[in-house]
Write a structure and sequence with these properties.
Number of strands: 5
Distance between the termini: 76 Å
Oligomer: single chain
Largest sheet: 3 strands, antiparallel
Helix content: 40-55%
Shape: elongated
Number of helices: 6
Strand order of the largest sheet: 3-5-4
Length: 189
Amino acid sequence: MSQLRPAVILLLLLTLITGLLYPLLTTLLAQWWFPVQANGSLLQNAGKVQGSALIGQNFTAPDYFWGRPSATAATPYNPAASSGSNLAGSNPALDEAVKQRIAALRQANPQADAAVPVDLVTASGSGLDPQISPEAAYWQAPRVAAARKMPAEEVKRLIEENTFVPFPGFIGEPAVNVLKLNLALDAVQ
């Protein structure tokens, strides 16, 4: 019985510290130092939230850039169902899915190069990636320019402006956030 009282006091003290004070402190510091990121990195257009810079969206219209395929169940880019396709590289079902995606992309982009960038036909590990490679964006540029009746050079300029290059250059690869790029397209027209 003499050990019960200190154990209960210690339990209450640690519960207070780890269950209330620490989460409150980290939330306050996050809101103070990184308010945009702490609130979901939401992107707005004309005061209306268009989405998060951290989660891809299912763009399918020809006048928008398309992201990586989503492997999430039921609906594409569903953050509640984040998952990869779980198909091994040797699985025939993956080969067939990639072939179908390549055929669909070539049909939608007849003026583009024959070699389709790999990130346009394979899903990411989470199925939610909001970025594509600059090569994938440039590959889609002729379709988007034609659909929007814009000069191809202006579309390529927007891709360049919306390409994130990590600093220093050896940590990560350059990437284009599809939602940011599409919002930039909408702002031009």
